[in-house]
Design a protein that fits this description.
- The chain is globular, with a radius of gyration of 19 Å.
- It has a 6-stranded mixed sheet, sandwiched between helices. Strands 2-3 form a two-stranded antiparallel ribbon. A two-stranded antiparallel sheet has the order 7-8.
- With 259 residues, the chain is an alpha+beta fold.
- The protein has 8 helices and 10 strands.
- Helix 1 packs antiparallel against helix 2 and helix 2 packs across helix 8.
Length: 259
Amino acid sequence: MTKKNDFYRRLEESYRQYLKHGSRSTKKIETIHGSVAWYLKTQLNNNYRVVAKGLWDGKEHKCIGKYYNKKVDIAVLDGRNKVKGAIGFRFVTSNYKQNINNYFENMLGETSNLQSNGIDYSQMLIIKKKTPYYGKLKNKKENGYKRIEQINDNTLLKYQKLFSNNLKDKPLHRPSSFFIKIITTWDECAYKKAIKDEKIIKDKKVFGRNCCLDKVNVEPVNDFDDMNINDNNIKEMLKRYGEFNVFIDNFVKKMKNKQ
């Protein structure tokens, strides 16, 4: 099994844990964070230590930033226990458009904070091609799934601008390495039915286990023709930064080259 295929297999396990246990459970992140950390560990020699929740008895590591301390998902430390680099991981599964600006602003802020203090900070962003929106149902006092939101040019333009080659100097708020991938989970039919029926959903975990779990099949999206993505620059960005192997190799190279 190749490293790439194994990554998406682990991502599917992570998504299944999310459906069973909810977004606040650490089970969702343990599988995928531990998997990414393991890939790094296999490519770095014994002079480095990789710390992450899901890798042995690891946990989120607190890094000293320029302005505030930040717990990171994955950290790489040298023999003196000094943080050489770190990775932030975000897996967006619902209500993306509602939170899109917050995601982006948080990424810029935490990246600038750590890189201003000499820590290479990279980001991984996984987005579902179609994300359900959960909120108050129309004419009802209860919550449920209201619509399906699809990624488009507008939601991705800010990332394309950030990583545009037109930026001559690398700004501190731009991640050292970047991975972005749109995926499909093939459980959208369950959400669509709930939306059509205006189904009241008090516990998303129960809905996920009973209605979505048996339909899940995580696959990367590499063909953007059937999506609302028409900007060629955005398509190029998704291709350039959408290779997991390349992201890992670039991150490892930077760690080895950093003194």
